[in-house]
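Sequence only, no structure available. Ideas?
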Amino acid sequence: MRAVVQRVSSSSVTVEGTIIGSTQQGLLVLLGIADDDTLEDVQYICDKVSHLRIFEDDNDKMNLSLLDIGGEVCVVSQFTLYGDARKGRRPNFMKAAAPDKAEALYARTVEAFKEKGIPVSTGQFQAHMEVALVNDGPVTILLDSHKEF
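Reply:
I predicted one. C-alpha coordinates follow.
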Protein backbone atom coordinates (compact mmCIF):
# COMPACT_ATOMS: atom_id res chain seq x y z
CA MET A 1 0.00 0.00 0.00
CA ARG A 2 1.29 3.42 -0.92
CA ALA A 3 0.28 6.80 0.37
CA VAL A 4 1.15 10.33 -0.61
CA VAL A 5 0.49 12.29 2.58
CA GLN A 6 0.14 16.05 2.30
CA ARG A 7 -0.25 18.39 5.25
CA VAL A 8 -3.11 20.72 4.35
CA SER A 9 -4.91 23.73 5.73
CA SER A 10 -7.87 22.64 3.57
CA SER A 11 -8.78 20.10 0.91
CA SER A 12 -11.81 19.07 -1.11
CA VAL A 13 -12.89 16.38 -3.55
CA THR A 14 -15.40 17.16 -6.29
CA VAL A 15 -17.24 14.61 -8.47
CA GLU A 16 -19.47 15.79 -11.32
CA GLY A 17 -19.50 19.35 -10.01
CA THR A 18 -20.43 18.42 -6.42
CA ILE A 19 -18.07 18.57 -3.46
CA ILE A 20 -18.31 15.13 -1.85
CA GLY A 21 -15.58 15.50 0.77
CA SER A 22 -13.64 18.29 2.40
CA THR A 23 -11.34 18.97 5.32
CA GLN A 24 -9.82 21.85 7.18
CA GLN A 25 -6.47 21.46 8.98
CA GLY A 26 -5.12 17.97 8.65
CA LEU A 27 -3.92 15.58 5.98
CA LEU A 28 -4.85 14.65 2.44
CA VAL A 29 -3.93 11.02 1.79
CA LEU A 30 -3.77 9.73 -1.77
CA LEU A 31 -3.94 5.95 -1.34
CA GLY A 32 -2.79 3.27 -3.77
CA ILE A 33 -3.47 -0.41 -3.10
CA ALA A 34 -1.31 -3.22 -4.46
CA ASP A 35 -2.45 -6.67 -5.52
CA ASP A 36 -0.66 -8.28 -2.56
CA ASP A 37 -1.87 -5.87 0.15
CA THR A 38 -3.65 -7.20 3.24
CA LEU A 39 -5.24 -5.88 6.42
CA GLU A 40 -1.71 -5.63 7.86
CA ASP A 41 -0.92 -3.00 5.22
CA VAL A 42 -4.09 -1.11 6.13
CA GLN A 43 -3.04 -1.03 9.78
CA TYR A 44 0.51 0.04 8.93
CA ILE A 45 -0.63 2.97 6.79
CA CYS A 46 -3.31 4.09 9.23
CA ASP A 47 -0.96 3.97 12.22
CA LYS A 48 1.88 5.67 10.37
CA VAL A 49 -0.32 8.47 8.98
CA SER A 50 -2.07 9.06 12.31
CA HIS A 51 1.19 9.33 14.25
CA LEU A 52 3.45 11.15 11.75
CA ARG A 53 4.90 14.11 13.63
CA ILE A 54 4.62 16.69 10.85
CA PHE A 55 2.71 19.50 12.56
CA GLU A 56 4.50 22.31 14.38
CA ASP A 57 4.56 22.59 18.16
CA ASP A 58 4.84 25.86 20.10
CA ASN A 59 8.54 26.04 19.17
CA ASP A 60 7.85 25.74 15.42
CA LYS A 61 9.31 22.21 15.35
CA MET A 62 7.51 19.43 13.49
CA ASN A 63 6.74 17.49 16.63
CA LEU A 64 2.95 16.92 16.64
CA SER A 65 0.81 14.30 14.94
CA LEU A 66 -2.65 14.44 13.39
CA LEU A 67 -3.99 12.94 16.61
CA ASP A 68 -2.18 15.57 18.71
CA ILE A 69 -3.74 18.50 16.85
CA GLY A 70 -7.21 16.97 16.43
CA GLY A 71 -6.90 17.27 12.66
CA GLU A 72 -8.96 15.78 9.86
CA VAL A 73 -8.02 13.38 7.08
CA CYS A 74 -9.29 13.11 3.52
CA VAL A 75 -8.57 9.71 1.95
CA VAL A 76 -8.67 9.49 -1.85
CA SER A 77 -8.10 6.25 -3.76
CA GLN A 78 -5.46 6.55 -6.47
CA PHE A 79 -4.44 3.37 -8.27
CA THR A 80 -1.95 5.35 -10.37
CA LEU A 81 0.43 5.32 -7.40
CA TYR A 82 1.28 1.84 -8.66
CA GLY A 83 2.04 3.04 -12.16
CA ASP A 84 5.45 1.72 -13.22
CA ALA A 85 6.95 4.03 -15.85
CA ARG A 86 10.50 2.66 -15.84
CA LYS A 87 10.06 1.21 -19.34
CA GLY A 88 8.55 3.06 -22.24
CA ARG A 89 6.24 6.03 -21.92
CA ARG A 90 2.99 4.44 -20.83
CA PRO A 91 2.79 3.40 -17.16
CA ASN A 92 2.15 -0.25 -16.36
CA PHE A 93 -0.39 -0.77 -13.58
CA MET A 94 0.09 -4.53 -13.11
CA LYS A 95 0.93 -4.20 -9.39
CA ALA A 96 -2.28 -2.31 -8.63
CA ALA A 97 -5.00 -4.35 -6.93
CA ALA A 98 -8.11 -5.40 -8.85
CA PRO A 99 -11.03 -3.02 -8.21
CA ASP A 100 -12.99 -5.34 -5.87
CA LYS A 101 -10.01 -5.97 -3.61
CA ALA A 102 -8.85 -2.36 -3.76
CA GLU A 103 -12.28 -1.00 -2.85
CA ALA A 104 -12.57 -3.31 0.16
CA LEU A 105 -9.12 -2.35 1.50
CA TYR A 106 -9.78 1.34 0.78
CA ALA A 107 -13.04 1.15 2.78
CA ARG A 108 -11.24 -0.66 5.59
CA THR A 109 -8.56 2.06 5.68
CA VAL A 110 -11.24 4.75 6.00
CA GLU A 111 -12.84 2.79 8.86
CA ALA A 112 -9.46 2.39 10.59
CA PHE A 113 -9.05 6.18 10.70
CA LYS A 114 -12.59 6.58 12.05
CA GLU A 115 -11.86 4.00 14.76
CA LYS A 116 -9.03 6.26 15.95
CA GLY A 117 -11.54 9.09 16.34
CA ILE A 118 -10.20 11.05 13.36
CA PRO A 119 -12.79 12.95 11.29
CA VAL A 120 -12.60 11.43 7.79
CA SER A 121 -13.81 12.56 4.39
CA THR A 122 -13.27 10.60 1.21
CA GLY A 123 -13.25 10.65 -2.52
CA GLN A 124 -15.42 8.30 -4.56
CA PHE A 125 -13.87 4.99 -5.54
CA GLN A 126 -13.32 4.65 -9.33
CA ALA A 127 -14.79 8.09 -10.05
CA HIS A 128 -13.16 10.90 -11.98
CA MET A 129 -12.36 13.32 -9.14
CA GLU A 130 -11.08 16.85 -8.90
CA VAL A 131 -8.93 17.13 -5.79
CA ALA A 132 -8.12 20.60 -4.48
CA LEU A 133 -5.82 21.34 -1.59
CA VAL A 134 -3.85 24.03 0.13
CA ASN A 135 -0.61 22.27 1.01
CA ASP A 136 0.57 23.71 4.31
CA GLY A 137 4.34 24.13 4.28
CA PRO A 138 4.49 22.51 1.78
CA VAL A 139 4.84 19.19 3.56
CA THR A 140 4.52 15.98 1.54
CA ILE A 141 5.55 12.51 2.77
CA LEU A 142 5.66 9.27 0.77
CA LEU A 143 4.79 6.03 2.56
CA ASP A 144 4.94 2.41 1.39
CA SER A 145 3.77 -0.44 3.61
CA HIS A 146 6.20 -2.77 1.83
CA LYS A 147 8.98 -0.28 2.62
CA GLU A 148 10.10 -0.05 -1.01
CA PHE A 149 11.12 3.58 -0.34
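Helices lie at 39-51, 66-69, 99-115.
Hope that gets you unstuck.
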